Amino acid sequence: MSNQNQLVSKVDWITISLYGLFVLAGWMNIYSAVYNPETHLWIFDAKFYDSNAGKQLIWIGTSLILIICIFAIDFRFFEAFAPIIYASFIGLLILVPFLGVTINGSHSWFKFGSITIQPAEFAKTATALLLAKYINEPQVNLSKWKNQWISGAIIGLPMLLIIASNETGSALVFASFLILLYREGLPGEYPGLFVGTVTIFVSALLLSPWTILATLILIAGIIIALSPIYIQRLKQTYIKAALFIVGIMFMVFLVDLAVNTVLKEHQRNRIKVLIDPSFDPRGLGYQVTQSKIAIGSGGFWGKGYLQGTQTKFDFVPEQSTDFIFCTIGEEHGFFGVLVVILLFVAFLWRLMYLADQQRSRFARAYGYGVVGILFFHFLVNIGMTIGLMPIMGIPLPFFSYGGSSLWSFTILLFIFLKLDSHRSDMLSR
Amino acid sequence: MFEGRRQILLLFFIIIGLVFIGKLFFLQVIDDSYEKAADNNAIRKIIQIPFRGEVYDRHQKLIVYNTPVYDLYITPRKAHVRDTLQFCQLFGITRAYFDSTCKQAKAYSRVKPYLFLKHLSKEDFARVQDAMVDFPGFTFTTTAFRTYQSKAFSNALGYVAEINSNSLQNQKDDYYRQGDYVGVSGIESFYEEDLRGQRGVKYRMVNSNGVEKGDFKEGSLDIQPIAGKNLYTGVDIRLQEYADSLMQHKVGSVVAIEPATGEILTMVSAPSYDPSLLAGRNFSKYYQDLALDPMKPLLNRPPSAYYRPGSTFKLIQALVGLQLGIITPGSVFTHAGAPVKCHSHNTSHNDLHNAIQWSCNPYFYHAFRKILYEDTQGNTFERSAQGLQRWSELVANFGFGRKLGVDLGNEKKGILPNVEYYNKVYKGENTWKFSNIYSLSIGEGELVVNPLKMANVAAIIANRGWYIPPHLVKAIGDNKVVDPFYKTPVSVGIDAKHFGVVIEGMKDAVLHGTVGGDGKIPDIVMCGKTGTSQNAKGEDHSVFIAFAPKDNPKIAIAVFVENAGFGGFAAAPIASLIIEKYLKGKVDRKAVEEKFMNKSYLPNVLSVTGPRPSKTKKDTLK
């Protein structure tokens, strides 16, 4: 009993409440997407469980069981068994091409009876655990080349295996471990370089080279103008600036070249659609266009719950899974999406705050891993529904329909909450 | 270590959040184009075309109505035909048609209705209706064809056709869409806005496959269609048919007006066409044929054809002279000194009555000369101008040189030559005088009218000085409203006292004047005036205007028969038969009736393109 009380008082109820809120809101929107006033089904009807909303209710129920299990397991298990968990999922990822089944054109699922599982979803948690355990080693210093290299390998291995099964979207999620590594002391240049590269890449696609050149010259000019006088007088300053601009412009041309030669047709199309949705209005552009129509038609207050016409009538493909944000945008309007975005950022902030409270570096690093993964999904998922990101098939955590996705995010989050509830028991090394 | 990095990361997250919020604000609040796009996506606007107004004759007889026809649609996903043979027999289609249409429908969409069979009649629809329970996935939609009770009223009625691209672009209120039907000519066009009614709109929600999912907002935005208004015309359809039968094998016009009301009793344009040809699916095929026909069956001659009035104009000359005080009933002019010839008639006392009775050309030559020159000053050029000025002002009152305002879109003004006109023709003021324009005295020369105008002249004389603008439709809709314009008498500025002598002259013209035996009605006093309208192309046109009975006239008429020669030959007998039919309800003169129903003047019309027939008595006008 005392153990129970201890648990209740030590878990972070703020995070759990937000989790509950997200899951509930997600389910309501899934219900809305399938809601049909003519064939009105409710939870006591067996047929209800054939619908997405019914199935999601089952996923939510089983998630509660998973949460209880996680809290029942000894908190030391996760650190101790991290290598074994990691190794098992690497094994599963290797086996997927041979034993997996194809669902929605993605050959990345295992089937156990009526339950299907996508190991790639869970591999993120496993990787976060192992990476955190590695960083927890006393001698690890992320400013050292060797430690960086090993961290990179831990992340890169599952990533490569997922890319091999053609799930580029899920593989890119692993880039989010940069946030974990950054917090744990990876020199700022790495994430800086990453963000810089992505910025250059995106601007190279969206803007003309002349616009980029003009912008760079303007930025360089402003920086120089704001610098101390002696720097302004140095010849070197201008040579450096010129080299910097030439270097970036060179990269811009490389990106253009890469897009047109290296990328596969369907990847190139996804990027083209991002730039110009009308490029393929019935195919890839259709999804983005319909998604924007659904969200845009919501107005400020939305059309009201169960009143969305776009999402209800299947104009937006994948609207319960990857495009659940459309339903929110259409039915609850700008007000609704504003609340969701603010709550999500607050949620991330709360998790970072909790992570920084940890005595153990393992728990803290794992916490930042969770933050990184959730943030990446948030960034890409919402970004793609409003046309700011290319379409990658990744869900909005806790909101999107799908067992694998809900389970994996629940496990990911609650392992951290379990660790957090034991932070006083952990030894800080 | 590195605690500060949490703040950097938080800042990064917040920036991303703000970028999203900004973009969403733009999408959802600023830009409203997505709302329209969404409505187009999800809401289908279904236009409901109401029934077009019906048209009735003066005795409440239905002359134009709508016949519903049924189109059969198939929805492949729902369609299930167990017994294809039975289905084909039911609809009278072949197995090959069934198979190929089903295939096309599936290729079009599995879930959207596809037109399977067009224009099933009401009878067919009733026959198959019960059997349709065995064939799910088939639905009917209703449309309507314009249907005509009579073939005799086509030109004035006009027709309904798909709107053409020009009208579509130039429409004022953006009402019509591609493929809409619109009245193209006649009263169908003139009363289009009354006839068409108010289109209904139904908003249905559809999903991304185009399948209907119920009413949008429970139908609160729907607009119920309002049926078009019925038109009640003053036309006597039996008289119309009779007049039309008399005009077979002829080119020309008949216009009959009720003098007291201005209601048009009959308006025949010959040759005409079967109106059912232009209603329904073969419109374009028949329209091509009719439009290219050299006899111009689509032309509505009464308001649009151009003729010279010929001697019928002498009535107006007489009235104008009397009103100006230049001639009196007792004025006498002999044949002497006139360049226009006359045939032999008693000229011992050639007064106005006699001149009208015998259509005396020299009389009106002298009278017109006097109208121009009497009480005017200066040389003959100046005096001609002054005289023509006062003459044309009075003649204009009869509707010459302007539109009468009949409820048809294609009314032509005609020409009333006045001072301005001749100054232009002769290139300057005081360059012309009576000797240049004397043809006007007997209704020839530059004077141009249409048959409607001359029927109105007959009505003016019948009324002794006024008319109500002639019109086909006397009431619109259930409230029987009518434009006050068609209720208001218009005076022609001739004192009623001057009409007596003219009417007496017209009476005697019929009884023992220019009108021959075929044009006399034994028991009705008809007042008429023959005319022979010269034309450059061939045989003269036969013209006759009349009204009857002499006291309390009920009908005023103008008949034009092209290339039929002297007015007493063709036009007068035809007019007399129509008047007899209208006033008595039957025609006793069966021989005359039969003669003129079968008489053909078409060879004369057709010879117009060939060598011109030799003519001897160019100026012998009656």
UniProtKB/TrEMBL annotation, chain B:
Regions crossing the membrane: 7-26
Superkingdom in the source lineage: Bacteria
Entry keyword annotation includes Cell wall biogenesis/degradation: yes
Topological relation to the membrane, as annotated: Single-pass membrane protein
Coiled coil: none
Record's protein name: Peptidoglycan glycosyltransferase
Protein localization: Cell membrane; Membrane
Penicillin-binding protein transpeptidase domain segment(s): 252-579
Keyword check for Transmembrane: yes
Limits of the Penicillin-binding protein dimerisation domain: 50-211
